[in-house]
Amino acid sequence: MTSPHEAHSLKQVSHSPPVLSVPFDPRPPEPLPEESTVDLKGYLNTLYDSRWLIGSITAIITIVAVLYALVANPVYEANLMIHVEEESPNASKNILSEASSLFETKKAAIAEMELLRSRMVVSRAVDNLQLYVEVQPKYFPVLGSWFANQNGGALSKPGLFGYGGFVWGGERAAVSVFEVPDNWLNREFVITTRANNRYRFSGGGQRIAFDASVGQRYRVQTPDGLVEIKVDRLVANPGARFKIKRKSRLGTIQGIQRSMVITEQGKQSGVIEVKMQGQDADRINSLLSEIGREYMRQNLARKTEEAEKSLAFLNQQLPILKRQLEQSEDRYNQFRNAHGTVDLREEARMSLAQAASARARRMELMQKKTELLARFTEDHPVVAAVNRQRREVDAEIEAIAARIRTLPVMEQDEARLTRDIKVNTDLYTALSNTAQQLRLISVGRVSNVRLVDAPIEPERPIKPNRPLIVALAVVTGLFLGTLLAFTRKTMRGGIDDPAKIERLLRARVVYASIPHSGNEDKLMRKVKPDGGLPLLAQILPEDPAVESLRSFRAALRFSMPHFKNNVVMIAGPTRGLGKSFVTANFAAVMAASGMRVLLIDADLRNGHLHRYFGVDRSRGLSRAMAGAMPVDEVIHRSVLDNLDFIPTGELPNNRSEFLLQLNLGNLLELVSGRYDLVLLDPPPLLAVADALIIGAHAGAVFIVARSGVTTENHINESIKRLNHAGISPRGVLFNDMALRLGEHRSQYGTAQLGYAA
């Protein structure tokens, strides 16, 4: 009798998804759950299934991070802060200027940030501190510096078992002079401490080695040029080695420029912060302090540069002007001395007064003579005396007139000399005043930048931040583990949920979901290479995997009346799906229910069911099919209660052709009448054609799929091949399913029971 549900035969697989034929079920079919857009539960299950992988990766990365955090060299950070003030803070403001300030940026702070990083500033600091000379102790690789930091600064015994010259403590060295030829730059040389405050210089890949004393300057001529060195201090035991390198000056400057982090604090605040990191706290503090001092010095020098240049020019001109003024005064004094005058204007006034007085006397003498001539003659002594007096007055008037006539020329000379003195005096006075003002400017000029916070030597390192490193390692490990888990799942493409098979085939076809058995793993670890295999249903009958097979037993007993015979074949698409484990344990479960069961190992290529029951394979199916032995003689009876077993027998050549013999059908027809159930375990479906030949004689065929291994293509291809051979599989057994999140855990363990649709 045929069930209505057998209408779901898989005949048209090329045009629609394969649909398994299923036994009759009087209940109406329930709609299958639709797959959600975001399968959150599936993602969580993937994470849960890969928990050991994720945990292992996280543990490895965390351990590496912890080791790194322990041995990593400490990194310190120093900083300084500079405030750049506006050039004209008292400038007038109006609506337009206030509005424009909303859109403009402070270019002064940006310019000062670039100046701080410039070679003009950094190169001076490099030269002052001689940072192109690098000296450090020779530590053992990876762990040496960590051991040195744990030694508390005490000196150590150099070397590892007396070799290598490695130092393990607070050894120190100071070198003030180290010059090498240009082609020896950036090469590593070695200073080896000797006794009596001496050392040996060698290395650099050159044939150069010499002994020297601490505190003395040595010059050694080589074919490439002069080597010059002065070691100021060596604090180490004899045998300790130091690595010394003369780096390129330009390379050192550029390295410092790259290491400087310069930022403006706040928006348009004009406050600039300079940070620098390094493994030597004293070195970065000294370097940053030197950069700050050099920057401030050059900034102030730039502000007073104009005044200093003007002052230098005036200092050159003032002596010249002073000599010119002195020469003008000398000529004026000589002029005064030569002419016996003090003031030409007063001299002219006096001369005019004298001339007027002389003329008045002459008039009086002429009047007196006129009166005398009325009484006396010209020869009279009185008249003669008057004439004599008049001549004297005339001579005096003439002399005064002559003197007055010379006054304009003298006044011109005197005015010219006075002008020269005045011009030179005014110029000299003005330049003297300007020079004094410039001196005041040079002394009292304040820069528009000020050092707010000077660098301070850091006390604690900022790196490595051990808690943060470990936390990031844990997060990174979880991320990489999760990424690898999803990548592995994507690459494998294995089905991890039986519901996906039912959605794929659009029918409730999963008869049993067999959970992963930890007990089986423990038993298999004890198995020897050629020893027997443990039968879980016999050793641990309460295992969840066995319980799931019992649910399949109930479904099969309900469906068997609808099969054409009692021969059931359990096949798998590929190897490694646990098909033999399922078949052997299911046979034991069916036999335990009281049914008479015959288990046949039909895998004539790699069958190994005989190892479950401890029998020899030579007396088996292949010999019965070949007619070499009767069927009764190849049956190993009562391997378990109610369970008989036929092994593969000797593996023949041309196995597929061997199976095409009519003897196989006759054998199965013979034994099916003697047993309640005949179970067949064939080779993989997709690997060889044996299962298709054997399945033609079976009343029902079930496909075994393994969680995470079997893919949708495996299921589709297996069904397609069975359909092409005229076989309609009855259902799917989902094996090795891991414990899923949100599923039930009974008192017997975790078991996801299948459907009997």
Automatic annotation (TrEMBL):
EC number: 2.7.10.2
Subcellular location(s) per record: Cell inner membrane
Transmembrane segments: 52-71, 468-486
Pfam families from the UniProt entry: AAA_31, GNVR, WZC_N, Wzz
Record's keyword annotation contains Transferase: yes
SUPFAM superfamilies: P-loop containing nucleoside triphosphate hydrolases (SSF52540)
Any one GO MF annotation of this record: ATP binding
Keyword Nucleotide-binding carried by entry: yes
Any coiled-coil regions, as ranges: 297-338
NCBIfam families the record matches: eps_fam
Protein name as it appears in the record: Polysaccharide biosynthesis tyrosine autokinase
Lineage of source species: Bacteria, Pseudomonadati, Pseudomonadota, Betaproteobacteria, Burkholderiales
